[in-house]
Amino acid sequence: MMQAADRKIAAPIVNVETEPFWKAAAEGRFLIKRCTDCGKPHWYPRAVCPFCMSAATVWEEASGRGTIYSYSVARRAPEPYAVAYVTLEEGPTMLTNVVDCDLDALAFGQAVVVTFKPSDGGYPVPMFRPA
Amino acid sequence: MSIRGKACIAGVYEHPTRKAPDKSVAQLHAEVALGALKDAGLTKDDVDGYFCAGDAPGVGATSMIEYMNLKVRHLDSTDTGGSSYLVHVSHAAQAIALGKCDVALVTLAGRPRSEGMATGTTPRMRDPNQPDFQWEFPYSLTNVAGYGMCAMRHMHEFGTTSEQLAWIKVAASHHAQHNPNAMLPEVVTVEEVVSSPILADPLHRLDCCVISDGGGAVIVTRPEIARSLGRPLVKVIGAGEAEKHTAGGDVDLTYSGAVWSGPAAFAEAGVTPADIKYASIYDSFTITVLMQIEDLGFCEKGQGGRFVADGNLISGVGKLPFNTDGGGLCNNHPANRGGMTKIIEAVRQLRGEAHPAVQVKNCDLALAQGTGLQLGARHGSATLILERE
């Protein structure tokens, strides 16, 4: 068993296109983008829909629930951590970290929920922990 | 319209250095350019097309064109990471077929080893405006963890094992023992690979390529010019390129862009995987090789582990001799970009100039395959099929 320790998380890079996401994260809300023309949600969030190129994309609050699609534990880092792709309940799969977990007990398809971790001088970062 | 047979690789050169603290990056580019020109029997003044990628210092191709004092009428600085140079050969063949240049020079060089880059295990800073990077940086996505997630998923879906992946390194090491310039010339065993430390699950240190300084260059030219130079004629007969990415969140880590670049190259060349006598396969990590072998059609999807096991990639032993220079896994991965050396070893094989211990008999058809950037996110795949006349 190897418990994931809290580690220093780099402050997110924020720009005008993505600022609402990070402001919501500061309030503990996890947003994704959905296109109001084709109806599809996507990741990572864009102003322009990656499926139909419509500019009619809107932020929506996601459930914060998902399952692990794949993962890899970086074992040589000073504080070992898990990089993962999590498939959100809404559909898209996103790159993230799985935290607050036993790094030796992660599994494909494992249910996870969003949690926000403080970053080094920036907005908090949405990550996932076992549900 | 096709590039089939419209251009030849007339010169290749791999810098012998693996650590160059006493040379600048521009200097290394110029040294490999000179090496390839000498190999072809041409001079700087014959060059009228220049190709380079992001490893070339300066803005696009411009700074190196000035440094080498070239006069070109065609240039291209397409950057698809480590696969760029295979794309360049394809683009050079296109330009030559259209009469846009006659002698194209492609260079790669860099010195990550002297500069102390922790290439695989430290997240690399990139342009903050790069839209995807913003969504990876806070999560500390390293190269090895990104490729690790591909390997984890492959194991989960297809039952691939660490021992099977290890066979790829073992095969490369069997070849590297004959290469006096190889960084890791020692033959290793499956046991040694799987007992080396895990960097990111499930990849061990010995599943990873080397970090080396150096570089390489190729000369692409019209067949008439190549024929006049008196070297064995190596024709470009097929090429494909593709980009695979996270597709708006529709992530599938079980395949690479080679599922698109491979068939395009085979179709243009009019050959099949079964016809290939030698394959240079991009080997940033062992999993990179395994996925490309499947995606190029050398075996069924999911069967790559069985295919690479038991020495099947060792020249003179297995069915698909690969990376007979020792590859990026054992020989050289200059500038963290392995595409150039893939082309160079394929040309050596086709000319009959590989080391005798690893030279494939009657090698008249070879493939070179590159996957650049991050297999577990976005990457550029490029496939070349080369034929000796």
Which percent range describes the beta-strand content of chain B?
Answer: 15-25%
**Which structural class fits the helix and strand makeup of chain A?**
mainly beta
Low-pLDDT runs of chain B: none
Mean pLDDT figure of chain B: 97
Alpha-carbon distance between the termini of chain B? 21 Å
Radius of gyration from the alpha-carbon trace of chain A, in angstroms: 15 Å
Instruction: Give the number of helices of chain A.
Output: 1
- How far is the N terminus from the C terminus of chain A? 18 Å
Lateral strand order in the biggest sheet of chain B: 3-2-4-7-1-8-11-10-9
Q: What's the pLDDT, averaged over the residues of chain A?
A: 96
Radius of gyration of chain B: 19 Å
Instruction: Tally the beta strands of chain B.
Output: 11
Strand-pairing-aware structural class of chain B: alpha/beta
| Extended strand count of chain A | 8
Strand order of the largest sheet of chain A: 6-5-4-7-8
- Low-pLDDT parts of chain A are none
Order of helices and strands of chain A: HEEEEEEEE
Share in β-strands of chain A: 35-45%
Domain Thiolase C-terminal (chain B): 243-387
GO molecular function (chain B): acetyl-CoA C-acyltransferase activity
InterPro entries (chain B): Thiolase, Thiolase-like, Thiolase_C_2
Organism (chain B): Propylenella binzhouense
